[in-house]
Design brief:
Layout: E1 2-14, E2 17-19, E3 25-29, H1 30-36, E4 43-48, E5 54-62, E6 69-72, E7 84-94, H2 95-100, E8 104-107
Parallel strand pairs: 1-8, 2-6, 3-5
Antiparallel strand pairs: 1-7, 3-6, 4-5, 4-7
Length: about 120
């Protein structure tokens, strides 16, 4: 059996920009992606703590050290600059891998700095 499991999460990040005219996706500081084990173009869910909106998209890397978390394309209509979000990345694995899994959960402060 294969299971879809949480493998990495950026918890309580802050949206730094919403770009409606961009092609689509979620731009995230490459340092944050690395910390959470999230790969370029990996599918993620983005959960808006402020308004309850949830989307599924993919990530593209932002500039290292920028602490950017930008919602792009049509999803920019569902989020606002300053919203707190949770970014969840998932992977599909067999039962043994799933039972041994320890997701990378990265807690962020209001400036998207890692605090845990």
């Amino acid at each position: 059996m294969l299971r879809e499991m949480l493998i990495g999460k950026l918890h309580r990040g802050v949206v730094t920009e919403c770009r409606l005219d961009y092609e689509g996706s979620l731009t995230v500081d490459q340092d944050l992606l690395d910390a959470a084990g999230i790969l370029l173009h990996q599918k993620v869910q983005v959960l808006d703590i402020n308004n309850g909106n949830r989307i599924e998209t993919y990530v593209i890397p932002g500039e290292r050290g920028s602490r950017h978390l930008m919602v792009n394309g049509a999803a920019a209509r569902l989020f606002h600059k300053g919203d707190r979000v949770i970014v969840c990345a998932f992977g599909i694995m067999d039962d043994a891998e799933a039972r041994a899994l320890h997701p990378q959960v990265i807690l962020l402060d209001e400036q998207n700095r890692r605090i845990g």
